[in-house]
Design goal:
Structural class: alpha/beta
Strand order of the largest sheet: 1-4-5-6-7-8-9-10
Radius of gyration: 19 Å
Oligomer: single chain
Largest sheet: 8 strands, mixed
Helix content: 40-55%
Bound molecules: iron/sulfur cluster
Number of domains: 2
Strand content: 15-25%
């Protein structure tokens, strides 16, 4: 299989076949992000022959093992959904040719990857198997989105995800705890809950901002332009998010950036999640949480 640089995938794609169709990110401008800094280029589309060779290899393993643990392919790279409708359809045809049991195809996607596709194209992509996108919306706080160079506004998240809803393409969100900065976490959490409550994410997964020296955000901090929340504030922020989510969804905080792993179904588990968060806020010290943060050497 062809894999380039560090391969990132959401926790729930652990049993999906990881197929490299792109590497890197077309945007590559978010101030906090160092995810693809190990690549010598910004973004690359894999040659079609490489994708086909990987699918051939996977089909041999599939036959030998009598199947995979899931009938799902996850396309790697920060935003393969940016590819044109035609390219995505070609990739889907190739997947179904070599792995006829595959039912769905997922990937990371940016909100702006959805924008240029027509409603009819989104519908056809859904029929071709595209489902279960993971969108790193990060926040619904417009001030933070602008400062961090995310390249869209909260209203774009709502507009484009409503189009995905209409096409039947399901999606999950990544939320970035602390993106709003010191003193603004609860504002960001409330703004995010407000947009989520208008949409239908399968899951809202929280990751906690961990700042690395090779990020642009680190320089902003050195220049006094931005201040990080305390670790306790980050947990208060998550609490506000959970408290204000009113839709049926899964809330998760499972990645390595979270000192405590949490997951629950909303609204059923809301009380339980809030009480765990209260316990963390009341009993864990800032020093202990800071020690954990300092040990997260790479996300
Ligand atoms: S956060 Fe996502 S969209 Fe932003 S630069 Fe990193 S990979 Fe690209």
């Amino acid at each position: 299989m062809h894999y380039t640089g560090t391969i990132w995938r959401p926790p729930y794609e652990a049993t999906s076949l990881l197929l490299e169709v792109t590497a890197g990110c077309t945007h590559h401008k978010c101030k906090f992000c160092t995810l693809y800094n190990d690549l010598p280029f910004k973004f690359k589309l894999s040659p079609f022959e490489d994708i086909e060779a990987d699918l051939k290899e996977a089909s041999v393993i599939y036959k030998r093992w009598g199947g995979f643990r899931s009938n799902r392919v996850f396309l790697t790279g920060a935003n393969p959904f940016v590819l044109s409708f035609e390219k995505l359809m070609d990739i889907s045809r190739l997947i179904h040719k070599y792995l006829p049991n595959v039912k769905t195809i997922g990937s990371f996607a940016r909100v702006t990857d959805v924008t240029p596709k027509t409603d009819e194209q989104l519908q056809k992509l859904h029929e071709a198997g595209y489902d279960g996108l993971t969108i790193g919306i990060e926040t619904g706080d417009d001030e933070a989105l602008a400062f961090m160079n995310k390249g869209y506004k909260a209203s774009d998240i709502v507009t484009q995800c409503k189009r995905l809803d209409k096409a039947g393409i399901h999606y999950s969100f990544f939320y970035l705890t602390s993106i709003s900065g010191a003193g603004r976490g609860e504002i960001g959490a409330k703004a995010t809950a407000e947009i989520c409550n208008q949409l239908h994410p399968i899951e809202v997964g929280a990751n906690m901002l961990t700042i690395y020296p090779d990020s642009e955000l680190y320089q902003e901090i050195l220049h006094g332009n931005w201040k990080e929340e305390s670790e306790i504030e980050k947990y208060k922020e998550i609490r506000t998010l959970v408290e204000n989510l009113e839709i049926p969804t899964i809330f998760g905080a499972l990645g390595a950036s979270n000192a405590f792993q949490l997951q629950g179904e909303l609204p059923k588990d809301k009380k339980k999640l809030l009480s765990i968060l209260d316990e963390i806020i009341d009993t864990v010290s800032e020093d202990e949480l800071k020690k954990y943060r300092d040990s997260v050497y790479h996300l």
